[in-house]
Design brief:
This protein is an alpha+beta fold. It folds into two domains: 88 residues, no CATH class; 125 residues, Immunoglobulin-like (Sandwich), CATH 2.60.40.4070. The protein contains four helices and eleven strands; from the N terminus they run H-H-H-E-E-E-E-E-E-H-E-E-E-E-E. Strands 1, 3, 6, 8, 9, 10 and 11 form a seven-stranded antiparallel beta sheet that branches. Strands 2-7-4-5 form a four-stranded antiparallel beta sheet, with no helix packed on it. Helix 2 packs antiparallel against helix 3. The protein is elongated, with a radius of gyration of 35 Å. The N and C termini lie far apart (92 Å).
Length: 230
């Protein structure tokens, strides 16, 4: 009977060292963990060394392997904290850099444009093929043609356009101008993709990162901006 009590006492001692409740507390509520931390790992290793068989101790290679695992876990944890710190710093730098674009115009995909501070509407057309007679049409919200530029033959690629000397009523209007572009090729009636310069009114930090608030286009990812002007 004494041997059984001694074995139970020894088992309870090991359970206590591991932080596991004894049989007297098995019905008491206990906090559970989803993962083991560094402290738990050290506790397990210490308990293993204290309760190993003196006639068959832990093999040196096994012990070194466990220490290597512990070192790896510690390194990964430290690296994770460092990367989070770097990410926060990069986020702050990105906010600072995008804030500098406020008040400037950025080139964004779209066909709605407003006069800039110099009273000019400008942008580019993306030509997939050569255009025999590239036409840029500027319309109001009712679809009436306000101005038209005929740029003649243009090779495939990005072709710039601009409308200068706008009438005062258009400069002071709160409604954007609609831009439509056509190749002028026989039988080709489809509109071309255009990009226009639009004003940056602010910046916002969202779940997707720092975004530009662009007039008429809402939130725009700074990575999509390939050109800007004062």
């Amino acid at each position: 009977m004494s041997e059984i009590n001694s074995s139970n006492q020894s088992l309870n001692n090991i359970l206590d060292k591991l932080g596991i409740n004894s049989s007297k507390e098995k019905f008491a509520p206990k906090e559970t963990k989803d993962q083991l931390g560094q402290e738990d790992f050290l506790k397990l290793m210490t308990t293993q060394l204290q309760n190993q068989d003196p006639f068959a101790p832990v093999d040196n290679a096994d012990f070194i392997a466990q220490m290597a695992q512990f070192s790896t876990v510690t390194g990964i944890t430290s690296m994770d904290q460092t990367m989070k710190s770097v990410s926060e710093q990069l986020s702050e730098m990105r906010i600072a850099s995008t804030t500098q674009l406020m008040g400037h115009s950025v080139l964004v995909p779209g066909k709605f444009a407003r006069p800039d501070k110099d009273g000019v509407i400008s942008g580019v057309v993306d030509l997939p093929d050569t255009a025999s007679n590239l036409n840029i049409i500027f319309e109001n919200s009712e679809g009436e043609v306000l101005h038209q530029d005929t740029l003649g033959t243009q090779k495939a690629g990005l072709v710039g356009f601009e409308w200068k000397d706008l009438p005062e009523d258009i400069k002071s209007s709160t409604v954007p101008i609609t831009i439509r572009a056509f190749t002028g090729n026989v039988g080709d009636t489809g509109e071309l993709s255009t990009q226009v310069f639009a004003s940056v009114s602010g910046t916002s930090k969202t779940e997707n990162g720092v975004m530009l608030e662009v007039e008429d286009y809402g939130m725009v990812d700074p990575s999509q901006v390939v050109r800007f002007k004062n």
